């Protein structure tokens, strides 16, 4: 059986609550054109693997667990509000993630390399850590949302990262549902 899989970092609950409050403010200005994520889905993706054979999950876990053992905890700064590709043509609305220590980027690079060794294709675009709040499905009536985004910001919050998650994403008619398959302590 195939499992839609990705590797991620969870966001501290208190910060999820604050991000969700901001998201609710944005929802008021967005109309029906945006598919918003629930706060239980807030995370930082390190690597999207796609459909993976169920038997491969243990190998992915073992490979990452061995390599990340002793990596150590580090802090991530959650800051700012933005869009991909940009504010004029928003497709994805996000909260930014910064890492002055460089550990987040180091972690992502290790995950990328280890997964490439297992046969997963390397990402060809630069890594931009973020938390997805919503995806723009219909850009017609979102001028109010863009104005709102330009007038507010997500103030700096710092959270500790102590583990990496191997996640499953089940696609349902109501949207995707995420489940933690394995946890890897740093």
UniProtKB/TrEMBL annotation:
InterPro entries: Cyclic_Pdiesterase, Phosphoesterase_HXTX, RNA_CPDase. Its EC number is 3.1.4.58. The active site is at 43 (proton donor), 130 (proton acceptor). One of its GO terms (molecular function) is ligase activity. Residues 9-94, 98-178 form the Phosphoesterase HXTX domain. A motif (HXTX 1) lies at residues 43-46. Signal peptide: none annotated. It catalyses: a 3'-end 2',3'-cyclophospho-ribonucleotide-RNA + H2O = a 3'-end 2'-phospho-ribonucleotide-RNA + H(+). It is an enzyme of class 3 (hydrolase). It holds the Pfam family LigT_PEase. A motif (HXTX 2) lies at residues 130-133. Keywords: Hydrolase, Ligase. It comes from the Bacteria. Belongs to the 2H phosphoesterase superfamily. ThpR family. Hydrolyzes RNA 2',3'-cyclic phosphodiester to an RNA 2'-phosphomonoester. PANTHER family: RNA 2',3'-CYCLIC PHOSPHODIESTERASE. This is RNA 2',3'-cyclic phosphodiesterase. The lineage of its organism: Bacteria, Pseudomonadati, Candidatus Kryptoniota, Candidatus Kryptobacter.
